[in-house]
Amino acid sequence: MSTAPMPQFPTGFRWGVSTSAHQIEGATTADGRGPSIWDTFARSPGRISDGSSGEVTCDHYHRHTEDVALLTGLGVDAYRFSIAWPRIQPTGAGPVNPTGLDFYDRLVDELLAAGVDPVATLYHWDLPQPLEDAGGWLHRDTAARFAEYAEKTAARLGDRVRLWITLNEPFIHMSLGYGMGTHAPGRALLFDAFPVAHHQLLGHGLAVAALRTHTTSPVAVANNYSPVRVLGDSDADRAAAAAYQALHNRLFTDPLLGHGYPEIPGRDPSVIRTGDLETIAAPIDVLGVNYYNPTGVRAAKAGSPLPFDLVALDGYPRTAFDWPVAPDGLRELLGWLRDTYGDALPPIEITESGCAYDDAPDADGQVADPERIAYLDGHLRAVRAALDDGVDVRGYFVWSLLDNWEWAEGFTKRFGLVHVDYATQTRTPKSSYTWLRDVIAASRPGSAR
């Protein structure tokens, strides 16, 4: 961590934290909520590393007032949360479940009363199970159902949510959920998962139009990005890196910004209908950037089903997820987006950035996490450097406010600024929470530095 003072950020720069519904809410059978693909996936033996589920997690559904108080204490401008589609439409279609929607109505009002902007993500991977039974994102109708859900949700909340995000990390959802099968719904289709990409993007475009009928707030999508580092100097290594770049970083950005689809293996043009690309390229106001680490790539070994091999990068500290801590990658990524998309690129907000470490309370009940402080320090400085390079970055959201249920890793990875004892639901702010609070306070106009 640098010992120099944190550089000043522009007036109006948005400081926030992020969570997602299935990872913190619990109450999976409360208020008429229907099952999601993650409820089903967690019941399948061997799918979750510790055998846990999202049934309780952080019990945010019942403790959201306590968590809003944590946001107030942190001093953030905004809270990015996700809305559980199965809580709004238990079957993924038809009338809304009013009790489920009431929960988010209360949450939004409590956030506004606390002076925190509500930032709502409509889809953070928790597809209603009945839609998956009908084909999930492989089925074009799911895009239409998503737009219907967006319209019904915005009809209730559109006057108060300050930023809408349609999809979270559609690449990760496609690749791990439908490509490799390590996430819900557990399908291992490899490149035959391309329809999942197209239908998520189509659903996004249809949802943008639906949202704009009920809100004047900006609309965004949150993509996961990973700078590609070529490991090797052969033409095959460079071709492998280009293939991975197209798949991870361009597949869900090129069409959003009017460039159509890049060339990737398995792209099936038959699922693309007349007018789809125009719908997908509906103007957005913000591009959400989720950044965790760069990816090392080299040519695939003989017989590999993929055209590249992913290789660990040496020379970096590593998180508990064994991800390299590389703030330089964030500055590199932001510059790449600017240079690649030019005037088509909307303003950027970093909608997720964070790290997992094995945090635990000491004998006095305190949770020191100096590695997370160093991580955030480095990545915030990378954002400031990108601003100096002329990239239009408007905000930074830390992943995550709370330790939570980390998908297929269960409760084994802790990303939070706040430690959660899952047995007692006790929340304990970590030292990173205090550090970030002070950084945010120092960024306010007129603060003493």
TrEMBL record:
<dbReference type="GO" id="GO:0005829">
    <property type="term" value="C:cytosol"/>
</dbReference>
<keyword id="KW-0624">Polysaccharide degradation</keyword>
<feature type="active site" description="Nucleophile">
    <location>
        <position position="352"/>
    </location>
</feature>
<feature type="binding site">
    <location>
        <begin position="406"/>
        <end position="407"/>
    </location>
    <ligand>
        <name>substrate</name>
    </ligand>
</feature>
<feature type="binding site">
    <location>
        <position position="399"/>
    </location>
    <ligand>
        <name>substrate</name>
    </ligand>
</feature>
<comment type="similarity">
    <text>Belongs to the glycosyl hydrolase 1 family.</text>
</comment>
<keyword id="KW-0378">Hydrolase</keyword>
<keyword id="KW-0136">Cellulose degradation</keyword>
<protein>
    <recommendedName>
        <fullName>Beta-glucosidase</fullName>
        <ecNumber>3.2.1.21</ecNumber>
    </recommendedName>
</protein>
<dbReference type="GO" id="GO:0008422">
    <property type="term" value="F:beta-glucosidase activity"/>
</dbReference>
<feature type="binding site">
    <location>
        <position position="124"/>
    </location>
    <ligand>
        <name>substrate</name>
    </ligand>
</feature>
<keyword id="KW-0119">Carbohydrate metabolism</keyword>
<dbReference type="InterPro" id="IPR017736">
    <property type="entry name" value="Glyco_hydro_1_beta-glucosidase"/>
</dbReference>
<keyword id="KW-0326">Glycosidase</keyword>
<dbReference type="InterPro" id="IPR017853">
    <property type="entry name" value="GH"/>
</dbReference>
<dbReference type="InterPro" id="IPR033132">
    <property type="entry name" value="GH_1_N_CS"/>
</dbReference>
<dbReference type="GO" id="GO:0030245">
    <property type="term" value="P:cellulose catabolic process"/>
</dbReference>
<feature type="binding site">
    <location>
        <position position="292"/>
    </location>
    <ligand>
        <name>substrate</name>
    </ligand>
</feature>
<feature type="binding site">
    <location>
        <position position="168"/>
    </location>
    <ligand>
        <name>substrate</name>
    </ligand>
</feature>
<dbReference type="InterPro" id="IPR001360">
    <property type="entry name" value="Glyco_hydro_1"/>
</dbReference>
<feature type="active site" description="Proton donor">
    <location>
        <position position="169"/>
    </location>
</feature>
<dbReference type="Pfam" id="PF00232">
    <property type="entry name" value="Glyco_hydro_1"/>
</dbReference>
<feature type="binding site">
    <location>
        <position position="23"/>
    </location>
    <ligand>
        <name>substrate</name>
    </ligand>
</feature>
